[in-house]
Amino acid sequence: MALNRKVAIVDLTSGTIEKKPIPLEVRKTFLGGRGLDAYLLYKYAKPGCDPLGPDNVVIFSAGILGATLASASARTHVMGKSPLTGMVGSGNLGGFFAPELRWAGFDHIVVKGKAAKPVYIWVHNGEVEIRDAKNIWGKSVTECQWAVREELGDPDIKSAVCGPAGEKMVRFANVMTGIKDAAGRTGMGAVMGSKNLKLVAARGTMDIKIAHPREALENDKKFIDQIVSAKVNQTQGELGTPFIWGATNSWGGLRTNNFQYNQILYADDVEPERIDEIAAETMGKYHMAACFGCQVHCRAKYKIPPSPLAEKFGVVGKYDEGPEYTSQGAFACEPGCTSADTVLIGNHLVDQYGVDNLEIGSIISWAMELYEEGILTAKDTDGLDLRFGNDEALIEMVHHVCNRDTRLGDILAEGGIRAAEKIGKNAIKYLIHVKGMSNLHSDERATPGLALNIATASRGSDHLRSRPAIDLYHLPQEVMRKIYSSPVPYDGPLSSDHREYVGKPWQVFWHEQCYMAVDCLGICKYHTVFLGATLPNFEDWPRVLYYNTGIEMTPQEIWTVAQRCNNIERLFNIREGFKKDDPYKGDVLVDRYHDEPARRGAPDVIGATIDREKFKVMRAEFYQHEGWDENGIPTPETLKRLGLENLDKEPSRI
Amino acid sequence: MPGDKLSTAEGLRATRTYGQVRCHNPSCTSRITPEPGANTAKCSICGSEWRIFWIKPGFPRIRGPVWETSQRLANERMAKISGRKEGA
After folding, report:
1. How far is the alpha carbon of B43 from chain A, nearest alpha carbon, in Å?
2. Are A522 and A65 in contact (CB under 8 A)?
3. Which of residues 21-60 of B touch A (CB under 8 A)?
4. Could you tell me the pTM of the whole model?
5. Same domain, A409 and A429
């Protein structure tokens, strides 16, 4: 059946491999994917360990619905302690790796220790091997995937890899698969590099038996129809995620010039419609692709068109996918650039180096402000004119950070907080981060609910943990009430006005459980209430779960699993040093959110800041919904209700 | 297993609207109905003006602001805020 997949514990120091079944009770407690990963991280990573040392772990997993008939059951989750933040490290990627891992017989691969020399892990039809990676170490993200296919003689192998940036332990290096699928944020690629682990290759032909195939197919037809009929997904299928960037810039919600502004003016060349034209010009009309089992097909394919910049860096005609809206942020608004060429080139480089586009774009933009403020000088930049809007300097710095081949590049590769300590001169004042992770390119000053989301997210500033993005849609009260009063009752306030503070803590709390549930199931967030109010959520998942796996759970039970897993992430962060008001590890926003009003955009965005006192009230209410005390610590009652009261003492359930 | 009762998501499907966009001015968000195939549309409530892209016939989306109008409204707002602060 769909559940008879195993966990492999791979110790790279000793070379030992254990294979363990996943008991049904554990399934019902954590489901799979990110939820079970959080439990395994808590139990297998040594408390207080160096994230780049052998006592950390890196975990690769599929969700419980992976490779079933459920729509978009493609997601791979990667977890460990973050070398960027020192707290929860986590990334989630699409593509085709997780289904292949399940066909190969495994749902979770837990890697601990450190290999004496570069290795890779080969997972195939119930077997796990550690193999010499001398032929693939040093290769780019796509080169190493093709090299391992050639070495093992199977062109259908799928791999989760670290690129050159991960090998050099850039603290925000990604785990990648395919052309551009990235488990971004928090540096899981650096953890792979620290273990001398180049990739995990998977290939399998073990069937996933569907519990009730006829009913699963019938139900999925309705499910898919619901998904593809949503306007937001039709837009994604045409323009990809760049439409989000375009919509946000239109009203003034984009961090520009490292958060000095909130809108990039006259950026028509970077708008999704222009990116789409370039993709069509270089790849033909039907240039959109999809991940495994997905009908939305939001990923564009493109080749880099000729331009002086592309010629200078030798990338004319290079094939890639995307760019996602995050690359528009990283290579357009944040560094103050307005060229599609720069976005496409930057996107290609981060995909090949295997580095987080959000983090590298943010940190170079931060360095640009430091340069314009005189905190960094031409001596520090080796003569590079690191001003906003200098496309060439931006791309040059991407190479230097990923290769760590200049002093400044090496410093920035350490992540913002460490870099600020090395640079000194109050450089930290200009760093835009939460818990040490750079913010998405979005500006939340006009949207308090979204600000609360990034401040309290478990892996640092993060729009994919609890963002109530539909708050921007001005939904009628009755629609909001329908969504947010299920599966657990809620009769408190809700506001359709996204500038309001009232009601937002519940929305953030609700979305936190929703996104955790999605990550446990292993499906895509674009198939739930992330960008579209009419997309499936808790009430829809029990049927998908039951027909595909045979597990019967109510919407409330799925909610409880999500809350349990979110609390494990919270407990992990507390174990690793979380303090509510700690500027580096707390649930706080940097001063610019509170002190510097938005200066561009729609009339009523101008002047917006996050009120400090109202923010604290929101945060306190959010803690109450969570069942946490005034310091953001889960209460004993909450832990008991979620079955986590003995988490520290109990032997690992796997 | 759950029966045939419509879930919240399924029930909300009937509320979708077509042929319209919402004004992106956060304090306005009123519905705008662009002329079929039009490149721009103006909000009759707040005066914001938007460039329009058509995902397909009958399915418009806001591509971005008409920059000149946007800049004018932004400057007016900034002047109002600055004046208020100076007067305070």
Report:
1. 13
2. yes
3. 22, 24-27, 29, 46, 48, 50, 53, 55-56, 59
4. 0.97
5. yes
